[in-house]
Amino acid sequence: MSEEKFDAIIVGGGLAGATAAYILANAGMEVLLADRGDFCGSKNVTGGRLYAHSLEKVFPGFAEEAPIERKVTHEKISLMTPKSSLDIGFSSEKLGEDPESASYTILHSKFDPWLAEKCEEAGVMLVPGIRVDSCVVEDGKVVGIDAGGEIMYSDVVIIADGVNSLLAQKLGMKKELTPHEVAVGVKEVIKLDEEVINQRFGVRGNEGVAWLSAGDATAGAFGGGLLYTNKDTISIGIVATLADIGYTDISIPDLLDRYKEHPAIKPYIEGGETIEYSAHLVPEAGVHMIPELVRDGVLVTGDAAGFVVNLGFTVRGMDFAVESGRLAAEAVIRAKEAGDFSKEGLSSYVDALNESFIMKDMKALKGFPAILSRREVFKDLPEMVDDICTKLFTVSGKPSMDFIMYVINSMASHLSVAQLTSLVGDIMDAF
Ligand SMILES: Cc1cc2nc3c(=O)[nH]c(=O)nc-3n(C[C@H](O)[C@H](O)[C@H](O)COP(=O)(O)OP(=O)(O)OC[C@H]3O[C@@H](n4cnc5c(N)ncnc54)[C@H](O)[C@@H]3O)c2cc1C
């Protein structure tokens, strides 16, 4: 294998890498896709909600054949304290009517192998089970990869090795991650009978529920809880920022156990059996952590490039991974046509990213990590809401105090004027 030179080598068979590999192979290139997992998807973790729009551009109508779990038709958001939950639900047959705006629950362990199979059908040489140690650099240009001493050459390398991206770090394109830049996600997949899921969540057929919660899920720290219905399993997890570890003395795995015991959550998962447990880092500093994206002979995509929007209670990275993989591949195709794999020859990737929803959304939401890292959002707000709702829905026969006054008093006891002013200031700055 070391004698062979590929047109492109892609490191990482997640959604970013596999999408890039598929597009390049379809364009007639010789492509090697290397992944350290036993199979693509074996090392990857996601909450499990895939917004379809970017994959629709690559595989129109993919949901017809791909192993999706359910189409999300029911949305639920909750603000939780230890004993209460204010829930906002929205269900509509219109959700996902148009395939481009649909979203599906998926499991990486099934979905990524399907994508890998598509790559192989397109002619990609898929090599699972190899860990790439570094990129090979000659005269300042990336010319291949080194996997345990075995050198493989290519015109271009696409780095899609996920959030840590040791490859981009070794090239000096990306800095070492700091606790403020990443969250930790822990997730379980719980087996339950399909009919039980349908009855408990009030869904039919392949309708699915996406339920996100803020507040008690992370004991008041930045982050949130997620629960997605799959066909006959439930994905449940917590995403909590690393910088906030220590804010409570509860470890992140314990937060998940606690979340599963929450009175609003427990009845939905009761009797289920945990069949999968995983943990993973999530990029969360948005536009502030994007590394150098292109150098001579190399591009960085997906989580490796920090392309995730993490609003604490919702994480969106898979549609970013697919889109950035596609844009990287298209830039490589242009570079091949021009016979120029230099940084300049590959720079149409950066231009395309700037025009895409990736950079537009990341820039638009750039102030959100600062807002959401404030205690008011995840602790004071849920407590205040609990207080007000308890008052609103309680009739005890005692004389009711004027409700408006009660709300004002409650707000004042949870949020000082200074806190409120500074929070509003942060919100204004974010836009
Ligand atoms: C708990 C949690 C919940 C999330 N929820 C959602 C959600 O609901 N919706 C959403 O859109 N996003 C969500 N995300 C984010 C989303 O999962 C990621 O943004 C997305 O999967 C990133 O895809 P990727 O291909 O860039 O990276 P990954 O999926 O991380 O793939 C990287 C691949 O590179 C391989 N690799 C790494 N190093 C090497 C090496 N040295 N050599 C060879 N191979 C290597 C790995 O094995 C892996 O297959 C969540 C993330 C977490 C952790």
Notable traits:
alpha+beta, single chain, binds flavin-adenine dinucleotide, 431 residues, eight-stranded mixed sheet, globular, 14 helices, 28% strand, nine-stranded mixed sheet, FAD/NAD(P)-binding domain
Which ligands accompany this protein? Answer: flavin-adenine dinucleotide
Structural class: alpha+beta
Instruction: Count every beta strand, where a strand is a DSSP E run of 2 or more residues.
Output: 19
Name the average pLDDT.
90
What separation lies between the terminal Cα atoms?
52 Å
* CATH domain class name of the domain at 5-68 and 107-177 and 288-366: Alpha Beta
Global geometry: globular
What proportion of the residues form beta strands (DSSP E)? 25-35%
Biggest sheet: strands, sense, closure? Answer: 9 strands, mixed
Unreliable residue stretches? none
Q: Architecture of the domain at 5-68 and 107-177 and 288-366, according to CATH?
A: 3-Layer(bba) Sandwich
CATH topology of the domain at 5-68 and 107-177 and 288-366: FAD/NAD(P)-binding domain
Q: Tell me roughly what share of residues is in helical segments.
A: 25-40%
